[in-house]
């Protein structure tokens, strides 16, 4: 008797003869091809449209390169040998900025360099300090706004910093309760968000010479999140779920404290992304995610631009504008899908010319990748749960070994797109199940709130329900189901092995929480202002101590019977190494097989290429050993 009702969307079952033909063509793709650094990525164009920049490997690390569009000459402008550069930006047309941490500690420093690689400077050379970018100040060639927890590790003050000299001045001191800052279109610091731990207050001021005044106070369970000012710098465009379940895009008047109008809403999902043209001062489009990314146009010129791109590039893959020059005449475009990381293009609108810049990972053949299909089911207590199922190519979808892959966050979500982990596992013959369990974002306020204090309980039940359906449908071999996840997904892995030990035959925990008490005791200092909110969402170590004991896997290692592999970054500031150490120790005391990998130069996930190779290579051997032989 089936306990759940599921609908699997768009899965096409093929005949045995067709499968046999495809299977003969399937090859085992080298592991490194999935997890090596891209050939080129993160293209950006200088504001004056004269230079093209991108990230590319140098000595196995992603570094910044700059190409002169008139001469074609290319220069490598950074020499980062210990760690990839992930985020960078143009600061005017004569300076580049980027942030980088050390060994995954997330204490980001701000760097600046000229486009020719000369005059490289560490602008914030402070130990144990996090630098965040607030506004690059496009109209100011010399200065930008950053925030740092230099004065007090728990809070961030705002500084104006000169990107040529490093000279900085504090322009807003955090009184101790501000968790966010925002500027207007002129680069003036006008907005702040304060918290008492559970209630958030939106603050605003008319100028940088005046004091912040409270505009709106809400409990953290509902929000009006400012996106940017209206073009006259008076009102706000915001994502709001005040008095409603789903986030919608509104215009908000801070003087009258009212929502003037709803710009866009969707009946099924949250809408929180609004795009605009700074040059033309018009709203251009809204983006939102159902089972995949969708777009609603607010401007005919932008609509025609995308139609032109689809005409030239095709509409098989997603098309995204990633960057443009100040004149909004040259656009950088990226494509992607569930089966490819995609390509970058440059679109010169004055010439009406679209050129391919590069593929991101040309060594991967899209035809050899598996399709990521959306699924939807009803949980045991009546909630609609969405997710994705990726089936290996060339294998009949019956009695397959399965990897359940819960996402991190947990207040995040899986989305349609290329996932190297999923494609790697599918290429190795595993079906991969991804469940957007309760609490996953994008599905409304009530769905999110239904996850509060449900770690290891109803959140875990949603994952379990998905696995049971796979078994009932005959897709999964009940004796060959594994579970793997990172961060909260690592916790869900441990919880799955602990609380449903008969369901899984092996598990891989990647930087996951094992003990809710120690996890909340060791959060980074700058999470401290939000600790009361975390107590409501995760639980209070004192008031909910009985539940914490019941739902912390480390206290129930005696229930785990399946082999376990744990991987951890030594410098992880979010889920500290003690979370993994204590779980390994508990398993060893039980005499249960456990493999443990620690990387000395990593944090919350492995960023360095060679460490990724080691981890996924070990995971492949682990799952092949415990799941791929029919028992």
Structure description:
This protein has 631 residues and is of the alpha+beta class. Among the domains are: 6-32 and 365-627, 3-Layer(aba) Sandwich (Rossmann fold), CATH 3.40.50.1820; 299-360. The chain contains twelve helices and 36 strands. It has a nine-stranded mixed beta sheet, sandwiched between helices. Strands 2-3-4-5 form a four-stranded antiparallel beta sheet, with no helix packed on it. Strand 35 (564-569), helix 11 and strand 36 (594-599) form a beta-alpha-beta unit. The longest helix is centred in the last third of the chain and has 19 residues, at 609-627. It is globular and about 65 Å long. The two termini are 25 Å apart. Mean pLDDT is 94; it is low at 1-24.
